[in-house]
Amino acid sequence: MLGVSVGITAGDLLTSVIGVGVWQLAVIVGLAMAAAVSLGAGLLLLSEAGVSATLVATLQGTTAGFPPARLLDVLLGGVEPVRASARHGRRGGAVRPGPPPPARSARRVPRYRPPTGSDRR
Which residue of 9, 79, 81, 105 has the lowest C-beta tally within 10 Å? Predict the structure, then answer.
């Protein structure tokens, strides 16, 4: 989430300042990745920042200037999965929609065993 936020912020700010083009794309991605490195980024955070900056610089919307709604979307989109996983805990997979499975009966029913030679009368 942090890498995407860095990439989108850098991409939005820099495209409003220097515009869009081939050399601008190289500058935007380079500065976004440099910002991620300055935050002590690992490889995942570094690549997230670069890819997000690339998407923002190449798929620019029709709005002019810095749209804070895009950054807000990123932050909310990253916080919601964290909140949901903290709420539901780790169940070894995805949370299934719908009601929970029925509870098992507390009383165990013995399995049928056919009589053997010693059990016959």
Answer: 105
